[in-house]
What we know:
By secondary structure, the chain is an alpha/beta fold. The protein is built from 21 helices and 14 strands.
Amino acid sequence: MQSISNTLQSYVKAALLKLIDESDLPEQLVVPSQNPNFADYQCNAAMGLARTLKKAPRQIAEDIVNNLDVDEICEPVEIAGPGFINFKIKTSYIQRRVEKMGADPRLGLEKTANPEKVLVDFSSPNLAKEMHVGHLRSTIIGDSIARFLEFEGHEVLRMNHVGDWGTQFGMLIQYIREEMPDALNNPQDFQIASLEEFYRAAKKKFDDSEDFANASRRAVVDLQAGEEKTLAVWKVFCEASMKHCHEIYDLMDIKIEDRGESAYNNLLPVVVQDLKDAGHAVETQGAIGVFLDGYKNENDEPLPTIIQKSDGGYIYATTDLAAVKYRMLEEKVDKAIYVTDARQKGHFDQVFKISELIGWSKPGALKHIGFGMMLGKDGKPFKTRDGGTIKLKDLLVEAEERAYNLAKELSPDFTEEEHKAIGRTAGHGGVKYSDLSHSIGTDYKFDWDKMLATDGNTAIYLLMTYARTRGLSRKAGVDVNDMLGKAELILEDEQEIKLAKKILSVLDIWPSVVRELTPNLLLSYLFEIAKDFSTFWNACPILKLEDQKVKESRMLLAAMVARVIEWGLAMVGIKALDKV
Length: 580
């Protein structure tokens, strides 16, 4: 379903084409008005066409209006100031649009006409230790982006590019060689009681002993060479790590496919050779690198992107280039989106440029989305009280406990099962919401009190708003959803009209969310509609009404708000609850 602004755009464009060549049309013809009490939408095209048409803007505005045919949509169009055209949408038109929207399971949001195969690379923890809060943002931002694209109708590959290769595994393998040599002879019996404790012990030895550190680096070479016993122990670590990761993913309702760095190991020498053969990679101080335009060192000398070290080893850039080649050429992906820490932007810029240079990807096919840091309430990196790293599982467990206690406080009459359900949904959902409601590229402060506030831009506020609509169904003895596509919408009260307009504005908001991949824009809209519903709820009685048609109309509005909130929360991986 086309949004009202886009509908008006088409009418204004048709009017302008009678006055001007299409190549001279302004890019933006109609925008929402800053003063909705005076006008819903405004056209300022006349202001930019004065020089082209050699007329005063107000005369151009009059010419546009004379060629407009929007009687079914708008009240009589008015010209204001030097040449602004103001549109006030007819209430009857809003009614028809909302009714049509309610009859559509997709809320009038059409699927893309050009579906693509899109890979989203997200989460991607390093294995051999438990996931911590530093993995939260990539995981939930990537999941939301995947949900957006899936809803649009694209084929989405949700890829978990885990760090299952490299120095940390050499360290762990060498620790086993020295401390648990029997494990190498009987890897099938080797078990890890605690990944975290094992990793800390190996890391301490790595930091304390240069000999151990050097031996660990040699163990990486054995691993890359496919030494049988080394590989067997490596697999134990990987399986234990992935089991832990998927426990977290299950808690957060994250669907993802694992494919570690090791999957591209055999492609690494091929990548280097391809780039050498194409004349893009050359020897530089014993290593192999690619010199890209614009990259220089502190002495203003050309700075290469290294793809093979002087000792013959490979680095992250080589692995990421191998992944790009495989994804674009073998899996035939149209686009790939990488969700990582913003500090990795420079790395991915180089990888993407090299990929385009050799022809593995087309310009614009690779996109990096960098996120800021999750900070504590004090503005410092989010840590435990003793300064340690907070495990992601511990964060989710605490969130669930806090939400459970809040549910018992707010709704003591609910059953234990209902309190637990609220704890899980509001807890895990609250963690997601508090993160995704902020701009992706900026740092944000995580605050338990704000996360579970019942009167702000929070998951619990949205969940309570949705639950209020479901409570209306229980009190009325009829599901408000039964009004969708059936009841006639009657808009007479100011708050009814305002809420109906807000419902329709999702048709304008959603394209921007998908185009920019901005969860915070969607959540900001959900918060606004929840606030407007609260105002409507207080101003417009429903259950006490004797006029059945008005009663059903207001129930229809409540049902539409519920549908929008339920859908919007689902787009960021949060499930709505009937009771909160």
